[in-house]
Records
---
Amino acid sequence: MKKALLTGATGMVGSQVLAVLMEEPSVASILSIGRRKTGRSHPKLREIVHNDFLNYTAVEEKLKDLDICIYCLATYQNQVSKEQYVEITCDYQKALTDVLEKVNPGITFVLFGAAGADPSEKSRISFARIKGRAETLLHQTPLTRKYIFRPGYIHPIGEIKPPGIMASVSRTIGGVVLQIAPALGLTNRELAEVMVKVSLDYPEHTKTFENKEIKALCSK
């Protein structure tokens, strides 16, 4: 039986990961750390409201006996400044892995990344460079098992969806595209199911999953 840590449980992907973890019989407990509570109630679920994601000292003791961490804490690039986006995408993640290195280096760490991430940071696209930097930071840790997911288009099902008119238009178009060419993307539920599956049992210790590989695992 596994004990899971989840960040970003109120987001589009994280909320689906939470649902999958609650349904998974091999998961004994879930610790959700976030700025606000999820509004969900389940015997497995414990929640910590935490406001400083650059400092995990207050919750350090609670991270010692966990088996897996599924990291879904993220924001939309157009919702914050570039500096804030770097802090949320890279610095928040590093603050958590720094603590895990110290108190629980054997934990399995699963990162919700993005297609197009460029760890070389040579891309002309800021989004790709920043997402790539986050991947590099994870690879630099001594954590035992590390998995990165780079999904393509994510079609939201459920109540939580990206905000804004453009996101609404994208969902409408994306839903049609997925019906015609399902290989181009996946739903947030499908992504969540694969992330949880890999976190619990995957033969390789380190792997980056591109969209095609994620889709292939959806059918297994």
Note: Residues 112 and 142 are 19 Å apart (CA to CA).
---
Amino acid sequence: MSISKIISIPGMSGLFKMVAQMRNGGFVVEALTDGKRFPVSSSQRIIMLEDISVYTMHEDMPLKDVFLKMKEQDAICSAMNSKSDPADLKSTLKKVIPEFDEERVHASDIKKMFVWYSLLKDIIGTEPEEKIAETTDEKSAEAPAEKPKKAKAVKAKTADDTEVVAEKKPKAPRKTTKKEA
């Protein structure tokens, strides 16, 4: 599982994994904490975690990169929880990301980052998404093309006992109907 399918829903605690898209444009999501699934309307606001970034002094840092830095210092970050003092949370984040902008990153945002990190730390950095794309491209390039089936020669005798050779074409795959499925 990658972070690209993980969302946050304002007004609801925790994180959710997008499971499927419904016909009306909404989604079926699964809570990461308890695994319960429920529908989310297309008019409801959702936030993709891959779209979130943290203010720094130079450039904004994507949340995925923040989580990777937190994983590098897992001993420090795992010790923090949502009930920790905001000053402790801020000083810990300062150890992880020294260049974050203290004026624009609020204590509530830092608290969310640590809560989300504790939910996602097992899946963060397991395999970078770029490598996944490269390996699928390599596999498709290495896979041999399917060979077309050859026509078989069929011998048959006619009514006057003369032998006729004809080619028998391979059958096309049969399409199933809704009744058969």
Note: The CA atoms of residues 28 and 49 lie 17 Å apart.
---
Amino acid sequence: MDFSLNEDQEMFRGYVRKYLVDAGQTRVARDYIKGKTDSLREIQAGLAELGCTAINISEKYGGLGLTSLDLVPVLEEMGRAILPGVYLETMGLAVPLLEKYGTEELKEKYLPEIASGRRSITLAWLEPSKNYALGEVECNAADIGDSYVINGVKGLVPDGDQADTFLLLIRTNERVTKEDGLSFILVDQTPDLEIKIQKSIDGTRHLCQINFDNVKVSKQQVLGSVDKGWEILHEGLLYLNGAITSYIVGGMDKVVEMATEYAKIREQFGQPIGRFQAIKHRIVDMKTELESARSLSYYANWGLEGQDQDREAAIYSARAYATDAYIRIAGHNIQIHGGIGVTEELDCQLFLKRARYFENYLGSISYYNEQTALALGW
């Protein structure tokens, strides 16, 4: 079977690539590291005009009515540019969950604004000194009639200072099992929320700590069934990890391109280093890992919308392999460049930091290997 992208998808990729190249590719990421967010907002507005924020949203709500597979070329191009922001979390997680579990009121409130580029949503899951285990969630919501009052702290929230809304995983019932007592609530950002930027290995992503102190939210903001947040989270992680693999493949593609181009122009002993067998073999290995990750990513995203038996195994294996390979080839790229590869003047270090960021985002490589084994019934 052919899992490659069709002509329309490749054509749209061309439009997105040209737009990001004209915008300076990693220049936006470098500005973001320095605290300059104006260029990012301009890029986001331009991508919205291209239709990137409407791809997998139903036509009823102002979208294009396409699938998650149509996000792949856009995400790959963003990965090549290491574009900051929460496009991943918005389009790869929030939109599919709103489409599948949201009430009509929630869909009408959020989806048109997302499609037009006027709203972004990020995931608030982890808590300080805690891990991704569901039993670690202590941020709670007290039932007061037609509303919830939220108290607790969320940490390492991706670009929490830039997002307009938080998809908050919260404990709504402590009298049932740890998994069943969780719910998802959409909380809009307000000036009353205390948001603090935390340190991160990847300066192109602002990780934030958010304090919820008696924050009152309507029960209409609950996504899906109360106390059944685990089921929604499980489904959402499939979509989000599929999107992440596409983003990673885009970054890997750019890394291989950088290494190849440098090997052609860097001379040693009177000839380009690309003529040396050791460098040739290294670049071939990098290219092989890139194409393997791309194939896994395409297959995973192709099966995402269906209910194929190997759906989970395909997504988890793609995420594990692509994450591991990204770290490896980003390191090889720096070695090929030599000492200059770790300097801030070159982009090599930006890709290695982004690769390391993904290493433990939403779970480790070992965790996803275990999930793959479980999905296969091993």
Note: Residues 229-265 form the longest helix (37 residues).
---
Amino acid sequence: MINSNKHKGKGAPNILLINPWIDDFAAYDFWAKPLGLLIIGGILRDRGYNVSFIDCLDRFHPDIRDSIKQGQFGKGRYAKRAIRKPEKLADIPRTYSRYGISEECLKQQLLDLSRPDAVLVTSLMTYWYPGVFETIKVIREIFSHVPILLGGIYATLCREHAMRHSGADIVLSGQGERAVLETLKKLTGFSCENRFVSNELDNYPYPCLDLQGGISYVPILTSRGCPYRCAYCASVFLNPQRSRRSPGHVVEEILYWHERYGVRDFAFYDDALLMDAERHVLPILEGIIRSEISVRFHTPNALHIRPLSKEVARLLFRAGFKTIR
């Protein structure tokens, strides 16, 4: 049940962002952050909302950080505990686990917060929806009448399933920035004068990565969408329109995280980082090289081979690329 708390004459609403658990046979922090959720958090904070963040996959939580092995270049293992397999997976001879902090830890973090006016939950892989459902159950137990909004990859690709089974009050699909702002305005009555232009990526504030327990790496998104339409890829459904940031804006963000927070590892999340290289990635690489910072770059989302030339490869190496997929 949605409790629409109008904020006329009151302070800014409290918005809670939650990255849910993963229930699976295996999971690893291979430069995997809920960047979409953190971008929305940055937008909300920039427009006057009070934003907090709970990461159910937090590797640096005080209760677990000393008990799990940290990997190279900011990667690392999640804490995990065995749980009962879903009925349809019962015949698979492997241990099924919940990855992330404990249920008790999540409940305590929720109880330690001021009551939020809305909770935003993201979702990643479609087959990880059981962890999303369990996270929403715990949120509902603590904040029974607070509106829960669900977005992300699963919510976009399996919207009807999410609406029927997730337990969220509202399911948002696709690029959620504008939809979140409009929905929260309806729920809380809070609005600001700043106009948000969702298709101009240079106008986006930086994601609220500083709300994490630790910043071992930073995900970087220089563009959205892909010019290809491969039958096996969901990119066209998640980002139908291709848009890009200016190279200078990307370089400025990398310098910001490195100089202010000492971050050395950056993971590019682009679907097509090397496309139109002369006007996009080459100026980015040249700007990084001119800055003379010592950082490392990784591409967990893969690179298209076709645009890879000797010049591009040379600049990737000089800029500090270490992991290429």
Note: Confidence is low (pLDDT under 50) at residues 1-5.
